[in-house]
Amino acid sequence: MQKITDKIAALPPGEAFHSLEFFPPKTEMGFQNLTARLERMALALRPLFVTVTWGAGGSTSTKSLQLAEVCQSHLNLTTCLHLTCTNMSKKLLDDALESAKDIGIRNILALRGDPPRNEEYFNTPTEEDNGQREFVWAVDLVRYIRKKYGDYFCIGVATYPEGYAEGSCPEHQDPVRDLPYLIEKVKAGADFLMTQLFYDVDKYISFEKMLRDDPSGLFKDMVILPGLMPIQNYHILRRTTKLSGASLPESIQEHLEGVKGDDAKVKNVGVDILTEIISKLRSSLPAKPIGFHFYTLNLEKVVSFVLERCHLISPPPEEESAVFEDDLDSNKFVYGKRRDRRASSIIDPNNHLIVDKIEGRRDSMLLESAKQAGFLHTNKQSDQPLSVTLAISEGEGTLGREATWDDFPNGRFGDARSPAFGDIDGYGPSLHMSHSQAINLWGYPVSLTDVSDIFVRYIKRELHAIPWSEQGLNEESKVIQNELVALNEKGWWTVASQPAVNCCRSDNPIFGWGPDGGFVWQKSFVEFFLPPQDLERLEQRLKELDGDSVSYYAANGKGEYRSNVKSSDEALNAVTWGAFKAKEIITPTIIEEVNFKAWKDEAFTIWQEWSRVYPPRSATSKFLTEIADTYWLVNVIHHEFPNPSALWELLKSL
Question: Fewer beta carbons under 10 A from the terminal one: N or C of the chain?
C-alpha cells in the first residue's frame, strides 16, 4: 500500500501521524550524510511517508530522483516526489514521471514553481512534445498526469492557509480569493492538500473550516495536511515567514524576542511553540486521522523532540525493538550558517525514541555504526524479547555526533559535508519575487554604472533587496558600509561580507551570538563579482604580499576556478568562531573550496534568472547575460583579524 490516501484511510479515526520533507543536498558529501540520517530517522521516527523537493525549473531533477529512490527503494519509505511545472519542458516532466514510476513511487505533489518566464523564453515544442507548450499553472500538471497515467499516481497539491502571496506580498493574500483555483485543481484530479507552513493556529482552523464547509462539497472528506516548520533559528524563521507570507502571532514573537541571539533558547522555545500548535490543532479539528507534515530542512533533532512530545511516533511492534536515548546535554561538532545558526542543544530529561526491528537488515548501516561505537547493550530489565538501548548523545561516540553535529540550518557559509548545506528549502536559485516586482526594484539596467548603482543603493539601505539577497543588510554591515560602497562604486559588486572582530562578548548587540558568558571572534572577508581584467590585477597584488595573510577563491560561470589555497579536504577557513563554557570551540562560518564552488553555480544562475525577467532580445537581457558569461565571483579572506582595516586597505589599493 504505497498511495498516501490509502495509507491514511487505513488508519483508525482520531489516529495522528506525521510526514517529513527532505531536499537533495548540494554536495556529494552532504548526500552521503543525508542517506545515513534518513536511515536513522526512518528507524526512529517512522513517518507515514516522506516527500522529496524538486528544484525550480527542474534544477535538481537528477538529485531529487536519486534521493527519492533512496527513500522509496532502499529505505522502503512511502515517498512523494514534488514536481514543479513552470519553466520546464514537457519532455523533462515526462522523463521525471516515468523515472518516478520505475522507482515505484505512487505519489506526486504537483506544484507550479516559480512564476512563468516571459513567453519568449519558453522552450520550442518538439515532436516529442506533440506541439504542447510549457505548463503555466499547477492545474495544468494535475490534468496532464491524470490524462496520461489515470489513477496510477496519488496527486497532492499545495494550498495556503493565509492565502497565496505572489512574490511575498502579504497585502494581496486572501484564502477566499484562492478558493476557485483550489477547486479547479481538485476537480482536475487532486487527491489531497498539503499546506504552506504557518504559525497562526486560529487562521489555520478558520481556513480548514472554510474548506470543509464549502458548498462544492469537494473538501468535506478530503485529506488536508497542515505544514509545519520546526523553529531551528530566529533568522531562518524570519526569512521563511517573509518568503512564504506566513504571519507570526504577537505571542510567538514575544516568546522569541528575548532569546533570538541564543539558538539554544530559540530551539527550546521553538519546540514548545510547535508542541502547543499541534496540541491545539488536535483538540480543535474533527476526529478523523490527522496528520502533520514537517519541513525538516534536512535536520533531525528538533523535529524528533516535537514528534515525541506530541506523541506522534507510532508505537513499535511488540517484538524486538530498540530505544534511542538522547540526553542532548552537550554541544560538540556543531556547524551552521553565519551567526544566526549557533550551536546549542535542548535539554529534555525524557527524550527517547523507539525504533522497531528491521527484518532482514542486520547489516544495517545504523546498527553496524552503533556496534562499532559501543552503544548497543541488552536491556535486561525488559520483559520483552531482546530489546536494545542505543544512546544518541553528543560526545558519547561516533553515532551521536553523526546525528547532531550540524544541528542548525546550514547555508552558504556552512560545512559542505552537512545534509543541510545550501538552500533553506531546497527549491533552487530564485529571485523570490514576481517579474513586475523585480522591474519595480531594479529597473532596466543596461550599463555597468546602472548595476553598480543598484548595489550601492542596497548597501545604503535604499533598496530592500538585490537578486542575491531578498533581505536587507544586517547591523554588522554598517561597520564596513563605507568600504562596501567604495567597492561597489568601482564595479566590484558585493554579495557577502563581514568585518573583523578581535574578541567580543557573546551578548554584544552587533557581533554577539551564542550562550551568555562566551566570547566570539571573526575574520574579515568579502565576496564580489568583478571583470576578468580586475581579477588579474587582484591576483598579481596578492602574489606580492608576504606570508599567507590572505586567501582567495575565484570561479566563473564557465567552470574555471582559481585559488591560492591548496586543494584539500582539510583546507577549511573558519572565519567566525566562539568559545563558551563547557563547550569545544564552535566554528559556524566556514569558507572552503567545496562550499564556494557549490554557491558559485547558484550565484551565476541568479544572473540568468534576472536576465529572464526581461524579453530575450532586450538590451537589459543581453547585458545581464553578458555579465553572467564573462564576470568572476571572488571571495577574499584576510586572516589578520586583530587588524580590522587590513582587508579593506588592501582592496582600496587596487
Answer: N
